[in-house]
């Protein structure tokens, strides 16, 4: 910590990666944090050791002030990144309310994402000031993987691992637990169809589904390259993989063929569709793919189309108007196959479950690559390629 503190030990020298709007480049910004003035009673100050990137970071950057004339009125700084892991270096004065946190604690979490916020705090930074009471669903003391597992991983640094999962685990948890299907439907015997078996959310989802909920089958879609190299590309818990780039057979036909083949044993249909990429392959034929209109659910994180993270515009979102119609009309109470567009919202139970599974080794986050802060641009390029297998993580050392 000493290198960041000026002669006045109440001042932390901060360095962050940020942007003003989508026409200004990502670059370093420098500031001072005055511990006597900037830290409020419910805050902790976290010295960030690692931060993981998510597609939403690139999306927020693409969408920052899409109407150039507004840049004149809103020139607020946004810092890139949401997921972080690090060490508490300062605790606010509200000792009673912050009794679970002390200087030296190792923590991880995800910062809230609000596209309407004019100025955004981000995790690509030396120091974060976090109001613990407002963020209690999204912050935890970090757990570590059992040594016999972590020693065999290519990227085993505890901060790298701890920064890699909060957003994707929370999201996978929401898709599985957020629709009233646990414990009644998603239990042994249940089946799940995941669009995006190679995504980081899909990776977390299959491990929760198989290791915690003990569902029987999880089927996923991915590229034929990922199928050919599944040992290194895809989590082994997937029972069956369907290529989305087969020139001879569409994804829809592959899925219907799988259901037909499986129907010899049971009806072959799925209890949950978890769309982690943006797919419209079977969205209009829920009755052919989902098991039961009262208990099954179709959840998407993205909508009918995959976004290009680098060039997304508001028009891309407006083109997805059919989603709104489905959300209104497809409901269990209307005797229809329920449908949702799931948006991340923190759940303390999800953080607790993730930490439990990590300490047991039943959830192993997948890390695609690790960069240092000076190479953040290469990390953002890797994220935006949409080919990362697991999380792109940046280590931060001042
Ligand atoms: N709504 C929310 O709150 C929320 C929260 C989290 C994430 N999301 C969204 O969910 C999506 C997944 O996020 P993530 O971080 O898990 O992504 P990610 O890890 O960056 O996904 C990368 C993977 O996507 C796979 N992929 C690319 N195109 C595909 C396609 N057409 N079909 C199937 N797989 C494809 C690629 O594997 P292959 O090589 O096999 O193609 C690649 O390895 C993103 O669009 C993200 O914005 C939304």
From TrEMBL:
SUPFAM superfamilies: GroES-like, NAD(P)-binding Rossmann-fold domains
Keywords linked to the UniProt accession: Lipid droplet, Mitochondrion
Start and end residues of each Enoyl reductase (ER) domain: 21-394
UniProt-recorded Gene Ontology molecular function terms: oxidoreductase activity
Family matches, as InterPro entries: ADH-like_N, ER, GroES-like_sf, NAD(P)-bd_dom_sf, YIM1/Zinc_Alcohol_DH_Fams
SMART domains: PKS_ER
A GO CC term assigned to this protein in UniProt: mitochondrion
Record-annotated membrane-spanning stretches: none
Location(s), subcellular: Lipid droplet; Mitochondrion
Predominant place of localization: other
Pfam (any one): ADH_N
Protein family per UniProt: Belongs to the YIM1 family.
Matches recorded under PANTHER family: ALCOHOL DEHYDROGENASE RELATED, RETICULON-4-INTERACTING PROTEIN 1, MITOCHONDRIAL
Protein name: Enoyl reductase (ER) domain-containing protein
Organism expressing this protein natively: Henningerozyma blattae (strain ATCC 34711 / CBS 6284 / DSM 70876 / NBRC 10599 / NRRL Y-10934 / UCD 77-7)
Gene name per UniProt: TBLA0B09610
């Amino acid at each position: 910590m000493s290198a960041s503190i000026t002669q006045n030990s109440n001042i932390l020298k901060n360095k962050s990666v940020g942007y003003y709007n989508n026409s200004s480049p990502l670059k370093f910004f420098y500031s001072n944090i005055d511990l006597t003035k900037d830290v409020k009673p419910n805050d902790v100050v976290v010295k960030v050791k690692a931060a993981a990137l998510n597609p939403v970071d690139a999306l927020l950057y693409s969408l920052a002030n899409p109407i150039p004339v507004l840049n004149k009125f809103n020139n607020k700084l946004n810092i890139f990144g949401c997921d972080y892991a690090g060490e508490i270096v300062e605790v606010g004065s509200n000792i009673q309310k912050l009794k679970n946190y002390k200087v030296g604690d190792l923590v991880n979490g995800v910062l809230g994402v609000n596209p309407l916020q004019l100025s955004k705090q981000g995790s690509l930074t030396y120091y974060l000031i976090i109001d613990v009471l407002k963020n209690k669903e999204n912050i935890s003391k970090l757990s570590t993987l059992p040594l016999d597992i972590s020693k065999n991983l290519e990227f085993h640094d505890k901060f790298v691992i701890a920064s890699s999962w909060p957003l994707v685990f929370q999201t996978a948890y929401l898709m599985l637990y957020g629709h009233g299907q646990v414990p009644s439907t998603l239990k042994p015997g249940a089946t799940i169809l995941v669009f995006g078996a190679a995504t980081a959310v899909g990776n977390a989802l299959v491990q929760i589904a198989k290791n915690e909920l003990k569902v029987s089958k999880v089927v996923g879609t991915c590229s034929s390259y990922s199928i050919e190299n599944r040992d290194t590309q895809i989590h082994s818990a997937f029972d069956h993989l369907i290529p989305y780039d087969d020139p001879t057979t569409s994804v829809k036909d592959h899925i219907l063929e799988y259901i037909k083949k499986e129907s010899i044993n049971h009806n072959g249909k799925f209890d949950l569709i978890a769309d982690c990429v943006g797919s419209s392959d079977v969205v209009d034929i829920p009755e052919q793919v989902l098991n039961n209109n009262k208990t099954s659910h179709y959840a998407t994180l993205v909508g009918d189309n995959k976004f290009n993270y680098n060039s997304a515009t508001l028009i891309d979102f407006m083109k997805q108007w059919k989603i709104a119609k489905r959300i209104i009309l497809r409901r269990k109470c209307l005797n229809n196959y329920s449908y949702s567009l799931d948006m991340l919202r923190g759940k303390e139970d999800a953080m607790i479950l993730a930490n439990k599974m990590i300490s047991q080794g039943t959830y192993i986050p997948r890390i695609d690559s690790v960069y240092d802060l000076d190479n953040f641009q290469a990390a953002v390029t890797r994220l935006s390629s949409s080919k990362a297998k697991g999380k792109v993580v940046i280590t931060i050392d001042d």
